[in-house]
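Hey, sorry to bother you again with one of my protein questions. I've been puzzling over a protein and I'd love to understand its fold better. Take your time with it, there's no hurry, and the full record follows here:
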Amino acid sequence: GFTVNDETRAWAAIDPDGGAATRDLCPIAILQHADHPIAGRYFERARVAAQSPGIDGLCVDYECGAVWCWCDRCIARFAEETGEVVKDRSELAGEGRLAHAFREAGRRRNRDLLTHLRAVMREVNPDLRYFSLASASDMPAYWWDGRSSGRFSIREMVKFADEIACSGYFYEIPGGLKSVRPLIDFTRRAALASGREVRAGILSPIGTTVNENPRYRGVFMKPDLTRLEILLTAASGGGQLSFFRGDCFDGAHYVAIRQAVDELLAIQPFLTSGLDRSSDLDVRVAAVPDYPLTLSVSHNLMARTAWHPDPWYLFDAVQLLNDVLARERLLMLFNYAEAPLKLSVKIGGLFDPAFRLTEFKTGRELARHTRLELESGAFEATVPARDVLLVRIEPETRED
C-alpha cells in the first residue's frame, strides 16, 4: 500500500477503466522516484532490514505478481517492448487480445522493482541471499503434480532468486505432503535448466491462516505430520524447512521435532552423500484401506466431509545410498494415511546376489531376498498410520 496524495497523484496506478488508484502507484513511477520517501518506502525498508545482524537474507513475497497498472507509461513501455499498437486499454485487460501479453509485461515490471530491491539489499551487505516465496496462489494446482504444474512461477523465480521457499498448506490441501518432494525436485531441475544452482525449501504453516473459508477453519498440522514433513524435506534435498503460525505449537510438536532431528542425525551419512536413487523404486499399495464416510463439524457449525484421496497420494518412498558403491541403502517409506499401509516395493539398480533388510533404528530383521526377488516386488512392508519406516538394505555377505 502507498499513500496517494497531492504530491504522488501523478504517479498513481491506473485501472483498466482509466480510474486512478487510491492506494497504489505505477511500478515505473516507483522506480523513477526510488529515493522518494513514499514511492521508495519498501526500498528503504529493505535497506534497514539488510543492516540487521545475524540474518542470511531477505524473503520477498509476491514475486510473480501480475499487472496492476494500465497508465500511459506502462502502455508505452509495453508497446516499445512488444511492437504492438494499442488502440484502447480494453485490449490489455480481461479477455482482450493483448491481455495475456500485458500480464507478462506486468510481471516484468514487478521483477524490475524486485531487482532494484535486491540491489539495495546487497549494497548494504553483499553476502545476503535473496529468497523468493512461491506461494500456492502463484502456482494454481501445484499440489496435484508439482512436476508439471509449477508453471511459469518457479521457472521464472530460479532465474532471479538465490533460494526458493515453496509455501503451501501441506496438511490440508489435496495432495498434502505428497507435493513436498515434487516441488523441491521441480525447483532444482528448473534452476539447472536456466544454468543456475538454486536451493529449494519448504515454508509451511502449523495452523490455518485461511479462516474465512469454512473448509480450513480450525485446521492445524498435527505433531506426527510435522515430524514427517521434516524428514521428507531433508530426504528430498530441501535447503530448509520453515514453519509459521507457531502459536499453534504445543509440547507434542516440540517432541515431534526433537524426534525428527534425532532421526536425521542417525541417517546423516545417507543425507550428506547426495546419492538419491528414488527413481529406482516402484511402490504400490498392496491393500487399499477401507474408507468410512467421515463427517466433522467445523467452528462455524458447518459439516465438512473428509477427503479420501487416491491411494497414490497416501505414501512417499525415498531411497538414499551411503556411497557410490551402492552396497548400503536407506529406504524411507512414508505413510500419510489414518490407517496402516501395506506397501509392495520393487527395487532396481542392485548388484549383489542377495540382501538383508532390517529396520534401521532397531536392527530388527524384516526380510531376506535375492536380487531378482527385490527387483520383482517380493518385499512388502506394513507402515504404521501417519509414520515412516526406515529400512536398511545391505548385501548378505560383505567383502572386507
Q: What stands out?
A: Residues 37 and 44 are 8 Å apart (CA to CA).
